[in-house]
Write a structure and sequence with these properties.
Number of domains: 2
Strand order of the largest sheet: 1-9-8-7-4-2-3
Distance between the termini: 23 Å
CATH class of the largest domain: Alpha Beta
Low-confidence stretches: none
CATH architecture of the largest domain: 3-Layer(aba) Sandwich
Helix content: 25-40%
Mean pLDDT: 98
Length: 387
């Protein structure tokens, strides 16, 4: 039967993600607007984002944290363009965004010494093949597959190469082993529910040493340049951004960090995301038609939860029909205003994707799940009758 209870906040998009509970635009009233971003009060706000991020996530004191242009994508490409080429590189890919970094390394930077460790959606590559003497580029959480790294045990503590980690849908939700990571990136629009277009870049002392001792053979755009005269531009990591940031977005992310601190910091945010995943897992265990795209429980994402269709009826459909069913289910849920933007990623197998990060309330997840059963039943009936 059609459910009667609806999610209070039907926002399950995987980016931009749901705002924190209770958010209103009134929080922007204290933004520094009409002023230079290099003015004293504006720089104080930018530095506050850096300092409070360090505190909440427990980032080591000797790691630099910067606010950079172009969201997580800009942060990753800034690192790749500036750091790669000094050693051979291992590229890990098990979903769309990891594959995007492969394209950058192979087709844009045209690196000569590249090894690709790749696997299908739903699985991780063989991490035991990673060579600690080489640089490594990888996502921590596959946003489009719902598959995340379970830990950093596979990363050597005495590695010779750098580890460059795209953690955009993992930061503020999953444990990150900072001592094993040399570059970490994310954007405000994911687990914090912030606004788009700004990226965060974290550099270990080893990454800084590479920047100061190696110059890549290709030209670097201005927004990628992190050194001056062979030395790190420390201003970037004190809130002196390379390009002009939106101070409205800065105010918004400061509000998100306020909320994170009020609820108990990173442990509370991680617990909320894991609780949301647990609610979905309980439902999947009872569902005759849905399953996780992630094949192994240990590598199942608690933020970008990707669902596949396990119904034998669905398996018997042509590929085009499968894609159509998935789109119809997502469209019906949106039409009913119970779930916005939960269609699977365009390159992923047909399915649904539910953002379950800390800014999403468990009550809303639990209210959504019966609607998934209803919507799938409605679409299945309509498709079967049309054949």
């Amino acid at each position: 039967m059609k459910p009667t209870k609806r999610p209070a906040a039907p926002y399950f998009s995987s980016g931009p993600c749901a705002k924190r509970p209770g958010w209103t635009s009134d929080i922007l009233d204290t933004a520094i607007i009409g002023r230079s971003h290099r003015s004293k009060p504006a720089k104080a706000k930018l530095l506050a984002v850096i300092d409070r991020t360090r505190s909440i996530l427990g980032i080591p004191d000797d790691y630099r944290i910067g606010i950079v242009p172009a969201s997580d994508t800009g942060a990753v490409e800034m690192a790749m363009w500036s750091l790669l080429g000094a050693r051979g590189v291992d590229l890990l890919a098990w979903e769309s965004f990891g594959s995007g970094w492969v394209t950058d390394a192979v087709k844009q930077l045209r690196l000569e010494d590249v090894r690709l460790l790749e696997t299908d959606y739903g699985h991780l590559p063989d991490l035991g093949q990673v060579d600690p003497g080489r640089d490594t580029v990888f996502v921590w959480n596959g946003t489009t597959s719902g598959v995340c790294l379970p830990d950093g045990d596979w990363i050597s503590a005495d590695r010779g190469g750098l580890t460059i980690c795209d953690a955009t849908s993992a930061a503020f939700a999953m444990d990150l082993p900072w001592d094993k990571l040399d570059v970490v990136t994310w954007s405000w629009q994911k687990a914090l529910g912030g606004e788009a277009a700004h990226g965060m870049l974290v550099l270990s002392p080893r990454a800084v040493e590479r920047l100061e001792s190696y110059s890549p053979p290709w030209p670097l755009p201005k927004i990628f340049r992190m050194t001056k005269g062979g030395k790190l531009n420390e201003g970037i990591f004190r809130g002196e951004t390379i390009n002009t940031p939106s101070m409205l977005c800065v105010e918004d992310v400061l509000d998100a960090l306020d909320w994170a601190e009020r609820i108990g910091g990173f442990p509370a945010m991680r617990a909320r995301a894991e609780g949301n995943l647990a609610a979905i897992a309980d439902w999947v265990a009872r569902s005759p038609w849905a399953d996780f795209l992630a094949g192994e429980e240990a590598s199942r994402s608690c933020t970008s939860v990707c669902l596949s269709f396990a119904d034998p009826w669905f398996a018997g459909l042509a590929e085009e029909a499968k894609a159509s069913v998935a789109k119809q289910v997502a469209a019906l849920l949106e039409e009913e205003a119970v779930a916005y933007d939960i269609g699977g990623y365009r390159d992923a197998p047909p399915g649904l994707r539910i953002w379950a990060g800390a800014t999403v309330e468990r009550d809303d997840i639990e209210a959504l799940l019966p609607w998934l059963d209803w919507a799938y039943g409605e679409v299945k009936t309509a498709v079967a009758e049309a054949v």
